[in-house]
Task: structure prediction
Amino acid sequence: MKTNDTEWPEMRLHPVGVVRNNIKKPMLVANDDGIELRERIEKTRENREIVRNMVSELELNPEMSELLEGVEDFSHILVIYWPHLVPLERRKLKQVHPMGRKDLPIRGIFSTCSPARPNPILITAVRLLEREGTVLRVQGLDAVDGSPILDIKPYVRSYLGVENPVVADWMEKINKELEDDPVTEDVSP
Result:
């Protein structure tokens, strides 16, 4: 492959392990119209809270033991994984309504967090709870059960922390809706 006068070598990725948890279906689904949120925002908010507290196991291949040496010294890690339930034909999406919401403007895939991407590689920062051999117990991973793990890196604020990031208005709207508690009315007499 040649891009911008640079010859790129063939790229091959091999999973280093697999995610084990109770998430059986992805929250976002790619379809002919782009992506679609499987649940209403209230249910999505509830599911997001469940995921934040859920403990997942990262079962790494036995030969990864040496690569994990010292990982338990970190409180958080980055899990890089492949969303294996995104069909190959859905990786051709170029633009989507973020979160499948028609009230939000169409945006290019690279400006969204959609799992339907040319190279569906996702990353999540999670709390590392425990290491037992080649099994890491983590909290807050949004990957579907069975997702292949491509890599693990320590979360280092000095490398990854960005001061005063600017986020698109539509993304702020989504985040606010997901963070806000549902409004409840006081029906007492």
The two ends are 71 Å apart (CA to CA). Confidence is low (pLDDT under 50) at residues 181-189. Residues 65 and 133 are 7 Å apart (CA to CA). Helices lie at 41-53, 157-160, 169-179.
